[in-house]
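Entry type: protein chain
Record version: 2
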Amino acid sequence: MNTDYKRTRYRSIFFVGGNSPDANPNGRRLGNYRYFRWIINELYGMKTIPAIEDVEAVMKAVLICAKGDGVLAPEERDWVVGRAAAYHNPKYELAKTYEANEDLLDILNQASTIGSDPRVIIYIAIQACAADGEYNSGEQAAVRKLAKYIGIEEDVVTQIEELYTEEAKIREKRIALLFPNGAPY
């Protein structure tokens, strides 16, 4: 892809100028900036939005991990699509159609940066893998491969997996407590 075209395209998607209420001090935009800033602060404690230049590579890597067992289940794809939509991700359409057949290392080599703390990528990959109700050995191996490529130690991956499991149980408990007769909507 022509880099000038790519640069222009990204600038047109992300840049918000002037005194817009959605203006990002970094001169970039990812959907509704206020909402995005709120949700990343609520979920991850981030005060500013992360770099988004490599959002396509991260999304592809997550989908490749979810297909680590040989099958990209509809629930896994739907989870990634839903997350992309909720975050106003400009690669939302890619999440709907990407087949996840590329080599993980090739995808990561296309990325110029993987963010200041790549652990969140592992967390997101685990969430996507488990979206069909199962986080199996093939998916776990794919997540560990991703972690190795981006420099995250095995014990940290195990801790992130444990965190995911704890949070899934808390979610179930919250839903059961708040809606004892089942979710009304």
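Comment: Residues 1-30 have pLDDT under 50 and may be disordered.
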